[in-house]
Amino acid sequence: MPSNVTRIEDLADAHVGVVGMGRTGRAVLEALSTLGARVSVYDERQESLEDLPAAAASACAGSPGRLAQALTEQRPRLLVVSPGVPATGPVLAAAAACGIETWSEVELAWRLQRASARPDMPWVAVTGTDGKTTTVGMLAAILTAAGLNAPAVGNIGAPVVTTVLEGGADVLAVELSSFQLHTTRTLSPLAAACLNLAPDHLDWHGGYEDYRADKARVYARTRRGAVYNCADEATCLMVREADVMEGCRAVGFTLEAPALGQVGVVDDLLVDRAWPPGRHTEGLEVATLADLAHLAPGGQAARLPAHVLADALAAAALALAHWAVARDPGAVARGLRAFAPGAHRIVTVAQGGGVTWVDDSKATNPHSAQAALTSLPAGTGVWILGGDTKGAVFDDLVRAVRPVLRGVVVVGKDQTDVLAALRARAPGTPVARIPDGDGASVMTGAVAAAGAMARPGDTVMLAPACASWDQFSSYAQRGDLFAAAALAHVEGREAP
Q1: What are 368's strand-pairing partners?
Q2: Are 149 and 95 in contact (CB under 8 A)?
Q3: How confident is the model at residue 2 (pLDDT cuts 50, 70, 90)?
Q4: Over the stretch 143-189, which tens digit does the pLDDT of each residue have?
Q5: CA of 315: how far to CAs of 32, 85, 132, 176, 195, in Å?
Q6: Is the per-residue pLDDT at 64 higher than 80?
Q7: Are 11 and 32 in contact (CB under 8 A)?
Q8: Residues 245-249: contacts with CB within 8 Å, 24+ apart?
Q9: How far apart are CA 246 and CA 267, in angstroms?
Q10: Closest to 372 in 3D by CA, of 388, 386, 359, 353
Q11: Percent of the residues in the chain that have a pLDDT greater than 70, as a whole number
């Protein structure tokens, strides 16, 4: 049985397996080759193994069962798995049965960092069901405003291992999915946050408790700040249970006035009572709502979605754990003003006739869609909903957002579950159904139906609460088609 790998130096001439030859897997292969490892690669798709670097000693393609059999036969000393390899699947089960130590790409990158010439270069880690990408982007912008080279990496941007090998960063803002955390073992971030927790990816993890446990891994060995959501009891409990380093502070973020140890909101100010020396008696203003106005529909700070404000507070709490921002707290406001939202996340894509069109195609689960929609004034929302449900239940979502709705446009190959929830929880709300078809025709039809429902002062929001794969190639394509169709509608021309 292979012995556990505990040091990067042990990988010289060691047999290492890499599962998944996407962008991250290829970055891992390159990193391992620099260490002198003998690498076997595994992927379900034969085409993913084409044009591999010479560093790959062997390659195997096939079903998860076939890959598990190959692992059992070859028994590499270490296995580095891509985030897509399910916790409950045959590959990880075979690795466990054979005693093969398993790492994520993040774990490999962390160990490379610790073995580098800059072992103490800090990482700041973020996970959560929703809001990770926005928060990490804001975090990187704040750290950059403080004069640091602070790339956003991980589940966003470049693979972490690539950035570590390049060696130019001062601090990393790291987005971590539950998939990545599942096989991350020794990470010790400067600060860490779980933004929120709602059921998601339960088939991958095997159940809610396993999903929760993997999310909670983000706090393990945190050195300076364990940041949690005061409105989400699950994250509060994670921090109370976390095995952090001595001296680490628990820091809450809240949409209310902050208590001691929290970052929150007073009138139109973002206020820190967690980090400054005078926090016991007063708070420190670090930004204003006006610094976030460009992230609100129509650029109006009064319409800023609550979850975007929560993400900004979390980013501020994390960034202030770094000494450069603590010395220059004005970097929070400068960074938030400089932050450009990622594509397809609460992005205003068209305005005309008094109607605002917002692309939130990245809202691929009910929790995320609810957060976006509930920011709208009562009765002013026209909601484009539907897609691959991933087994989600929509009753609670529809009940929560019904007060803001003027009407609903339903897309998706199978609309059964969505329509049932609308009938049960929003009776009387106008509903338009778009027939199945190619992505462009579906979105053109959805925009036309939404435009017919909308009135001046309304917002048409694409917040599907579902994955895109049934009718679109990705959530990005879905959002791009929506944006193009919305702009064409406003301009009175046919969609391209």
Answers
A1: none
A2: no
A3: very low
A4: 999 999 999 998 777 899 999 999 999 999 999 988 889 889 999 99
A5: 33, 29, 10, 14, 10
A6: yes
A7: yes
A8: 245/188, 245/221, 247/223, 248/222, 248/223, 248/224, 249/224, 249/225, 249/274
A9: 35
A10: 359
A11: 96
Token couple for 425: 């929880």
Q: Tell me how long the chain is.
A: 496
Locate tokens 């998601």: which residue? Answer: 200
Q: pTM for this structure? A: 0.82
Cα–Cα distances in Å, from 81 out to 1, 55, 154? 19, 17, 14
